[in-house]
What does this fold into?
Amino acid sequence: MVKQIILPEICSEEDLDTVKGHHLDDGWIHHLIDEDCDIFTASPDNPMIADKFILSFRKKCLVNTAVGFDNYKKLVAMSRGRGASAGPIVKDAEFWLGKELLIRNNGFTTGYMKDGKPSKMTVNNSVYSTVAGYFDKMNTMGKNLPCRMTNHTKKNFKNYEEGLPFIQEIASYYQDIRPVEFNKQNCRADLKKDFKITGTPFSTITINRNFRTALHKDSGDFGGFACLSVLEEGQYNGGIFMIPRYGIGVNMRHGDLLIADVHQYHCNTEIWTTEEQDKFNVDNAPSFKNMTDTQKGILGGEQDFSRLSFVCYLREKMIKC
It folds into this structure.
């Protein structure tokens, strides 16, 4: 029998609105989760009765980890468009040094001057964050993009397909653990099968490397629930997944599975290493050693270890494709 935990909120949505886009430390964690459990909010009428589902966590349940890491590491690429999750602008990061002046800086989003002219767009910190699978119609940088397979998926299609057993295993656990949410999402995805990841209820996978997300809520997804996992190479500490409204910290590590309400504010704690771990990683974490000059300045790219995090979900507007 999986442990069930019922939690009251320790702060309000309005409190968290004031720290959106900020990094939060582990002082927000009142309940550190490192074992199988299901967590629910407490009923407003009776704190002993479960009300709404928050998350399900399963420790080291995934076995297709090698095929997942070896293939999806090939899809990892840089993004400057991760919004509040990219955190406060790091002005002394190498990425910004080539820009003459930051303008329209609201904390986690900024424009910049280059060659004496203001940029036409605003961007965020440069981080490793890639979208795999499919994406819905959007207007970006003056271009109207149709519903489509993402560019990184096309370029690495063989790796995308060969890594699918890892994503399909996540989907299988999702079906077993939260069948109601799974079926609702799967029925919706079946309405547009051309944009559905084979053998899953997902349309899209976000893959991050060494990306400490700042406080944010996910948007654009159907149903509000996503499946998350982590694959690792090398050694590190931290990166705990937090839902601060309920004081939750989930120690999600290699092969773990988390099914969570990502419409709750969430973030990660600092990811860090000891001197001994750094020495180990120099010899035992080879996948991202050969960084090119164009990749310098990407937050997390200076680290030898790799924490690949996966967020699997269904895009809300795929139904319009």
Notes: The chain has a mean pLDDT of 92. The two ends are 42 Å apart (CA to CA). Residues 62 and 169 are 7 Å apart (CA to CA).
